[in-house]
Amino acid sequence: MTPALRVLEREVVRCRRCPRLVAWREQVAREKRRAFADEEYWGRPVPGWGDPEARLLVLGLAPAAHGGNRTGRAFTGDESGRWLYRALWRSGFANQPDCERKGDGLELRDCFITAAVRCAPPANRPTTAERDNCRPWLEAELDRLPRIAVVVALGGFAFDNALRVWQSRGHPVPRPRPRFGHGIEVRLGVAGAGPAATAATGGPILLASYHPSQQNTFTGVLTEAMLDAIFARARELLDRASR
After folding, report:
1. Nearest-angstrom CA–CA distance, 46 and 115
2. What DSSP string describes 169-184?
3. What is the DSSP string of 86-102?
4. Contact at 8 Å (CB) between 174 and 194?
5. Would you give the distance in Å from CA 182 to the centre of its chain?
6. Fewest CB atoms within 10 Å of the CB: 76, 78, 124, 224?
7. Residue 237: half-sphere exposure toward Cβ, Cα within 13 Å
């Protein structure tokens, strides 16, 4: 990780902008889940992590109360993360499928993972104000990740947040405004930007995926094949952009 990203990480971890989220994340860290009663919870904002030269950004909603809020690493130690990292491993964006804790040997390749909101929210539902309070952290990460060319948004909240953030950064959003759906692909940037659009030519390509939450994976709304197809498409777009 670059020095600039490390400085940002330390700033994110100290954030206390949202009283409701601070109270909730710390309550969860004190009370714990029985299965993790002997573990020390992170209980702080969870910074993004990954390859500082990444061309792929994976954007989630927020840390899980007993996942990232426990381990201190996004999508780590819960079932959603296991689904995500297996898919990243199969598509070559991770060196292994396992994601149980920091220091487990997991490395991201050409990929950076972050979230719209950095603290675990009650019922996984951050407020609009909490989303907006966290937005500067995402903006700061983007300023330090100059090669991002494809963004995979996991879930409608992340998808809408990505549209809002990139539009504010001067990258036009198509009209009518795209609606979330699995597999939806949006080319952000200058009018007429084609499939090889990048941050340098106008903006990234936004891919939408259902979130790998248990609500979706247990019910078959999202299958591993569906998630694999999203990252295969991301790989295809990046390969095309590099030609």
Report:
1. 9
2. TT-PPPSSPPPP-TT-
3. HHHHHTTSBS-S--SST
4. no
5. 16
6. 224
7. 26
> Is the Cα torsion angle 110, 125, 100, 140 positive or negative in sign?
positive
Decide if pLDDT at 35 tops 90.
Answer: yes
Tens digit of pLDDT for each residue in 121-138? Answer: 999 999 999 999 999 999
57 SS3 class = strand
Name residues whose C-beta falls within 8 Å of residue 50's C-beta, 6 or more positions apart in sequence. 108, 111, 112, 113
| 110: CB partners within 8 A, 6+ apart | 51, 53, 54, 55, 56, 93, 238
C-beta of residue 66 within 8 angstroms of C-beta of residue 78: yes
Residue 138: is it exposed, middle or buried by C-beta count within 10 angstroms (0-12/13-18/19+)?
buried
CB 165 within 8 A of CB 114: no
In angstroms, the Cα distances linking 1 to 47, 68, 111, 126 are 12, 19, 12, 28
**Residues forming a β-bridge with 209:** 154
Whether 196 shows a pLDDT value over 80: the answer reads no
Decide if 83 contacts 24 (C-beta within 8 A). no
Q: What DSSP state is assigned to residue 154? A: E
The CATH-assigned architecture of domain 3-241 is 3-Layer(aba) Sandwich (3.40)
Please tell me the distance from the alpha carbon of residue 5 to that of residue 109, in angstroms, as a whole number: 16
Rounded-to-integer distance, Cα 216 and Cα 141, Å: 28
Q: E strand or H helix at 138, and its extent?
A: helix 128-143
Identify the pLDDT of residue 202: 63
Amino acid of residue 39: E
Rg over CA atoms, the chain? 17
One-letter identity of residue 89: W
